[in-house]
Amino acid sequence: MDENFVLISGCSGGGKSTLLNELRVRGHHVVEEPGRRIVREEMAGDQRALPWVDPAAFARRAIEVTLADRQAARALSGWVFFDRGLIDAASALGAVTGDAMLETLCAAHRYHRRVFMAPPWPEIYATDGERQHGFESSLTEYQRLATVIPAFGYETVTLPKSSVSARADFVLASLLTGPM
Questions:
Q1: CATH number for the domain harbouring residue 32
Q2: Which residues contact 47 (CB under 8 A, 6 or more apart)?
Q3: What is the number of structural domains in the chain?
């Protein structure tokens, strides 16, 4: 288990990337969301693995990128915050294809016991060139993750709907306290 690898998951458009940017500004290591990187690469290339073109190919790429991110992060000390992770990618692949690799991957590549979940927050949700799905799809994704993550023995902690600074304070304080 990589106790210093902290997963920020949850609803698309729930403020995860903004929170991770605040943690980066505070001097912590941050790993950008694999999905956004893949979409940028695909938009500049053949566009075959875009989530709205081939969700299974996109999820497989996300798994590859996440595994590479984890390997690279092993050289870092201190907290390493991941904007989405292996559980997100493997559960997306399972939802699209029924592929059961989720259990094997997630058992072999653990995160800190607390996973922070960005709840659905329609007031800040927005689509863009990299996030083209609607809020309803985000809710479905959130519900899947809210079921899958605890099933792997993680304690899920819901992020407050508050300022980015207060959210960052909450995450850091939660990591320093005992079981919630």
A1: 3.40.50.300
A2: 53
A3: 1
Distance CA 82, CA 48 (A): 25
DSSP state of 5: E
For 164, the domain range is 5-176
Note the Cα 172 to chain centre separation in Å: 17
Distance between terminal CA atoms of the chain? 20
Type of residue found at 13: G
The pLDDT profile of the chain, 180 residues, written as one tens digit per residue, is: 578 999 999 877 778 889 999 999 999 999 998 887 888 877 787 878 776 778 888 888 888 999 999 999 999 999 999 998 888 888 888 888 877 667 777 788 999 999 999 987 666 555 555 545 556 776 788 898 899 899 888 999 999 999 999 999 999 999 988 544
| 67: nearest Cα among 139, 148, 2, 142 | 2
Q: What share of the chain is helix, strand, coil (3-state, %, to 5)?
A: 50, 10, 40
Tokens of 33: 């969301």
